[in-house]
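note to self — DONT lose this again. spent like an hour looking for the file last time. sequence + predicted structure for the chain T wanted, 257 res
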Amino acid sequence: MRIRYCIVTLNQFSWVIDKHLPSIDESLVDGVHLFVSEVQDQAYNGQDFADPCEVTEAMRQLERFKNWKVGSSTNNYGVANAWNLFAEEAKKDGYDAIIVANDDIYLYPEVLKKFIDTLKTSEFTSFVEYNMFSFYGMHISLFDKVGEFDENFWPAYYEDNDYHYRMKLIGLDSANVEGTSYFHAGSATLGKFDLIRKMMHHHNFSKNTDYYIAKWGGLPHEEKFTRPFDGAENSGNIKGKLTRSVINGIEPIASDD
């Protein structure tokens, strides 16, 4: 099984370079895909985001992996968009599965090996101790059954609940890896936001909450519908997004695939 390890980051690039990437055992994965949102030369609202120099340093570190790919966007690409991109690119490049990890983690010894052992026999794998989508693995074939992540949940939150609920609607669930763990800082991206960005975050969270309730008739674990919008739209179809968000400034920086 060919497995690609994927990370999307917004403002945790230093953590990715200093802690996350060094904790990955390159012998266990067949490639790495790193995607960086808001690559720019200057600070945004007083905040420092990943700049081209940091991306260059990351690429230097990635050379120890068999295959690697780095992409970026000049704006906030969104979590669902990035996760769909990882799956689409992995399928195109001939991978069988992806592991998708939050940027603000690092792996304890033996975690990745135990995780991959479970992933080889399960279409979706996560950790029971944590939010399952902060570190998860999935077979590319699962996209044919469940569809893509709904990109209307932008830039983040509820895209994971939506996908898990759609999995359960067709009788699928996660295989959980127990007896091991990893370090997760948790909400580290939000913690670096200034007041303006935090206000934007709360606005988007509220918007996504309303969209989830409209789509499934209730909050996570309180859903009432078995079809999106109770069949009012996409009747009978529980796969995928409704519309792809318009994203500008996407540019692949480099690839060794």
